[in-house]
Amino acid sequence: MSFEYSSETLSAYVDGELSANENAEIANAIAVNAELAQQVAILSSLKAAVAAGDCGLKESFDIDLDGPVNKQRKFTWVAAVASVVTVSILLATMILSSDSLLPNQGIQLAEEVHEAWLEGQSKSFSLEFQRSSFVALDRLQIDAYVPDLTKVNLAFSGIRKISSGKSEGMHIGYQGPSGCMVSLVLLDNTVGLSPELAYFEKGEHLLYGWQVEKTGFYLLAYKMDPSRLAKVARVVNRLTRERLPLDPESIIALKDARSTSQPCLA
After folding, report:
1. Are 216 and 91 contained in the same domain?
2. What beta strand segments (E) does the chain contain?
3. 18, 31, 151, 223: which could form a disulfide with 264 (CB 3.0–4.6 Å)?
């Protein structure tokens, strides 16, 4: 696989403007190529800084086109361009030396957490979390939305705090009546993922990932039918981005996917 992408393509990836296939291709490349992941992380942070007005670009375009451009305006424009370059260099330095979590690192951590959960699954449930996931999210200081999937036979099966050298996060387990064990892993301080859903192939397993603000989301279920997992991932991606509960259309789609797929125990 070639890891050479134009700046326009990477910019469109960060903005979530690529097709599903293009998005998946770049996401998979990022997962195995640290240099490309760092490029995307730098671009993502730079876009966020510019959008926040950190570079003084608004003033640089405030020019009267009907009259002469005075020296002060020219200086402001040049200063703004220099500011962008400076911010780019600073962001590159910060990201390359920071504790930001790159996609390949997030994937590995998500798999480790999922496998540990499968090996040590407990029958006990977190009643507090069943009432409201926002309590746990607030305690972990994670600004994210976690959907309730109980209406499609995927009940909450506990919440676990994640602490690693580079990130804090949480693992939400969903368990179905036919043996399905679905993990939704949230990791803060994440860079390099797109808001759009991307899939990663890890051996025989599929893992889905996306990013909302600085929080990375990873969804995986080793024994779930691939077509059903894809539909679950699409729904959860939309709900976490829009912070919405399950709607009737999604419920029907997920129930249909469950009825036409093999049980997870098979």
Report:
1. no
2. 155-163, 168-175, 181-187, 198-202, 205-212, 215-220
3. 223
